[in-house]
Design brief:
Shape: globular
CATH superfamily: Vaccinia Virus protein VP39
Number of strands: 8
Helix content: 10-25%
CATH topology: Rossmann fold
Mean pLDDT: 86
Distance between the termini: 20 Å
Structural class: alpha/beta
Order of helices and strands: HHEHEEEHEHEEE
């Protein structure tokens, strides 16, 4: 899903669906695997998908199954939307969070990105990673300035090509990147990679 009108999706726009492009996820995962292993227990808390669209991240993750050096893994899915193809229809932010996942990966609503990061970190095993696709403007906010000191991402994989989240192929004026936080590691600075 894109950043556009994402808060309304959580309220009442069941059909307001913006799918993350497959190439964007593949490009990220190809780079991510150079820095991290493909984990065993994965969660997509905003899995999306509906009768006309597959769930983006789980679908692309399945492409890696069986590759050399990739352990077997399980992908669990959650989405707030009732028409989603997710395993559970719940609000990830209202769930009780226990440390159990190795990787939480998604494209969360931009207006709730900070909350999704905090909830994701609470649901990770130590050394696990949260990887969210976000607008780079997420970095610039006085409201989050103090939070950044305690919650600096380990990596930001910036997509040189702007993703389109609509069927017409149009893009918004924002640049995007996959932000990666590693539980138990709070760096002073972020490693930035252009992909």
């Amino acid at each position: 899903m894109s950043a556009t009108n994402r808060s309304k999706v959580r309220d009442d726009h069941k059909n307001d669906y913006y799918q993350t492009p497959a190439w964007c996820i593949r490009d990220f995962l190809d780079e991510f695997r150079k820095d991290f292993y493909v984990p065993e227990k994965i969660l997509d808390p905003c899995a999306g998908g509906d009768e006309a669209h597959p769930m983006a991240y789980p679908t692309i993750l399945e492409e890696f199954r069986g590759e050399a050096g990739v352990k077997d893994f399980v992908v669990s899915t959650i989405d707030i939307r009732e028409d989603s193809l997710a395993d559970k229809h719940q609000d990830f932010l209202e769930m009780s969070h226990q440390e159990e996942y190795d990787l939480i990966i998604s494209n969360p609503p931009f207006v709730l990105a900070k909350e999704f990061v905090d909830a994701g970190l609470a649901s990770l095993k130590r050394g696990g990673a949260v990887a969210y696709l976000l607008r780079l403007s997420f970095l610039g906010s006085m409201k989050r300035k103090l939070w950044w000191k305690e919650t600096m991402p380990t990596y930001i994989y910036v997509h040189a090509k702007r993703p389109s989240f609509t069927e017409d192929g149009g893009t918004d004026a924002a640049q995007y990147g996959h932000f990666v936080w590693v539980k138990g590691y709070n760096p002073d600075t972020t490693n930035l990679k252009i992909i």
